[in-house]
Design a protein that fits this description.
The chain is of the alpha+beta class. 28% of the residues lie in helices and 33% in strands. The chain has one domain: Gcn5-related N-acetyltransferase (GNAT) (Aminopeptidase), CATH 3.40.630. Strands 1, 2, 3, 4 and 5 form a five-stranded antiparallel β-sheet that branches. The chain has a three-stranded antiparallel β-sheet with strand order 6-8-7. It is globular and about 50 Å long. It comes from Nonomuraea soli.
Length: 175
Amino acid sequence: MTADFIPFVPDDADDLVAFLTGEAWPFHTGVPQEAAVRSRIAAGHYDDDDERTFWIVTGGERAGLVRLQDFSDDTPLFDLRIRAAHRGKGLGTEAVRWLVRHLFESRPEIRRIEGTTRHDNLAMRAVFLRAGFAKEAHYREGWPGLDGKVYDSVGYGILRSDWESGVVTPPDWNS
């Protein structure tokens, strides 16, 4: 699958609201309310000095969204959402590889990129590994779920040096 990554602009506010409120996001905090999304847009949470958001467009359709966060830090984070109809087709891996390349090529001060997911989000865990990330953490009962359960969360990271060499160096768990 080939995707384009198109920057979010304020004129996309209605589309972003429809995207985020239009379906369930099983490994996020549920379906956000329209007012909350509009408030976050107005406050610059999708496009400001510390965050950038990109539409993932394939076949002329906005199939997903990637939000890059914490630009003021040398270790940014990201949020990835793929519409249900487009999951399981490689789009998540393509998006994560794109964001890694985009961040490392455009921001020379960035040393590493981090991401976290619920332990039972096996698809995202596989995306991290296919994109060159190493598992770096396992947080027991670190992710409250909508169902009242508290799930484990898993942290992944990619180092600039690993990305440049194409070799994933695992953490030294015994040091």
